[in-house]
Model the fold of this input.
Amino acid sequence: MFLTLNFNNSNQNFVQLLAENFAKNILYLTEKNQLTNNFLNVFLNGNLGAGKTFFMQNFIHSLGFKGNVKSPTYSVLETYSINNLNININHFDFYRIQNPQDFYDYGFEDYFNQQNNLCFSEWSENVKTILPTADIIFNFEYINENENENENENENLRNININAISEKGKLCLENLQNLKK
Done:
């Protein structure tokens, strides 16, 4: 492991801040040609409602995408072209993929072999035996302790653990160490 970051008791505002700052790092590294082949493989793990899709929506908008960012829960894949960066964001949700053969039947392996692709996989554990090694793993853990006290979604807390598995992943995370809640 190259770098581990832990953000405990994080609310929705912090998840948004984290996504925005992660996007700034990606923008900087892309502009400086420091992402090898502009390819990055990121796993987003966590239970339902922990903030994975919310993180992705904020991340994609922070890269300059102006359209609607949808959850890939039913479509399994949503792709967003960030034209000014010449990259594609491929947001997978493997929740409904129970058989690894489905991964190949849909042709998903092609997305993980193309330059200028940033691949983000929710529920990667469903196909972990066939996915390429992650550069970064985000783990979102939803904490239910405020469930009965406050119905404001922004106050629902989660723990976020981020691991850089590669040197490229470490580069993407380095400036996030100093984020404050």
